[in-house]
Amino acid sequence: MTSPTIVWLRRDLRLADQAAFVAAAAAGPVIPVYVLDDETPKHRRMGAASRWWLHYSLASLDADLRKRGSRLILRRGRCETVLADLARETGAATVHCLRHYEPWWRNAERAVGEVLDLQRHHGNYLAPPGSITTGSGGPYKIYTPFWRALEARMPPAAPQPAPQSLPAPAAWPASDNLADWNLLPTTPDWAGGMRDEWTPGEAGAADRLAAFLPRARVYSERRNLPSVSGTSRLSPHLHFGEVSPAALWHAAAERGGSVGTFLGELGWRDYAQNVILQMPDYAGKPAREAFEEFPWRDDPVGLKAWQQGCTGYPIVDAGMRELWATGWMHNRVRMIAASFLIKHLLIDWREGERWFWDTLVDADYGSNAVNWQWSAGTGVDSNMFVRIMAPLTQSPKFDAAGYIRQWVPELAHLDDTRIHDPDVRPRAYPPRIVGHAEARARALAAYGEWNDRG
Ligand code: FAD
Predict the structure, then answer these.
(1) What is the 431 CA–ligand 1 centroid distance (Å)?
(2) Strands (E), 16-136
(3) What is the Å distance from ligand 1's center to 368 Cα?
(4) Which residues fall in the annotated binding site?
(5) Is the pLDDT reported for residue 328 higher than 70?
(6) d(CA 86, CA 256)
(7) For residues 29 and 1, which has the higher predicted lDDT (pLDDT)?
(8) Which atom of ligand 1 is nearest to the CA of 370?
């Protein structure tokens, strides 16, 4: 019998439009494997919400594989050691995978490539990160010209259907038991809201997409309104690779009409990968280096109030509570909440990045860091620091009354006008931790002093 081929899965937990499976199945028997690496130094450990998602996504992929005569092998440890051991045990000579661009995955791919024949394929982005270059061949730093160049290369190749069956090896190697990985929270079990909201896995992604497509035409009008279902909520599915961006592009584009804004958001996802390819430390270092000297405040009380949704600003608190309950937050509200932490509280954006990393089900190294640096004004392409979002103005502007009512029950009895900025605060709702005018003046003064020094 032909020796088997390993498919090394990471954030590409799908069967459809998965080039690694296509290439491996063409060569003979396939051994799909997921390696949980909590050992390698500098391998950023997945946050708690992501680990919850991962558990169910792996279970779903295993069930889908079993319907095709295959199964998912689970192993723990350093990728290069685990994959080399697996190859030795099974006689596999080649490993196929999709390429990933987080610095630790690039290191892992290098290490695996040194000990095995590693074949890397494109598939998790619209275009391979690093391939969209300026006229002089350099990488783009700014989103708009990047998007123009990317769009000119679209559409992506048509997506491949999932294989009907996958050739199995003569004998299956041993696998860990998923439950033994303890990816799910137990004491306390804080994942109830996430279970209600999400169905991790390829079928869950397909359902989300089917629900969104009829609304794709009105995306540009509704995407900024947190009280309505205006966006796709596909971000965790995209992050874990349960749907390919190419499949999404074709499905949306086939709808016709004005889906350009939606496709442009997918472009931001590609853009973020291009940024971390150029600046791998993007989550830890401001792109504008002078910001390393910025006088951020050390304010554990303020940070905790922000994390717990107890700032006294209804729109900020609604967002932070939605995040805690469901592992997701509406994009407009993410921008408001991020601005509040950075400008109103003058807390280092990296604290926010870390909190989102731990609590978002779509926590993504590139997208999270790029958006935090955008909000802070520290990034290569970013909002200016002195642009301070006023939460009490943003809230009525984007019609957030229904959203606040859902997530801040203490305010649910207030009418659509008073709910954004209650003049008489219900006793159960926390007082404002800082006044808006005072916070704004403090932020501008800190910026001014820092700027003068620089
Ligand atoms: P839709 O509006 O339906 O957009 C479709 C897809 O495009 C999304 O699923 C996502 O993959 C991509 N996308 C949309 N907006 C952006 C964006 N600004 N940057 C990059 N990709 C985008 N997104 C993440 O996927 N992971 C993160 O860790 C993350 N952290 C963020 C942190 C901050 C402070 C902010 C302001 C934004 C962050 N975003 C992040 C971007 C954005 O908020 C989410 O992608 C979006 O809310 C997901 O909802 P959706 O799937 O309904 O998006």
Answers:
(1) 30
(2) 30-36, 73-76, 94-98, 117-121
(3) 8
(4) 219, 231-235, 262, 362-364
(5) yes
(6) 47
(7) 29
(8) 19
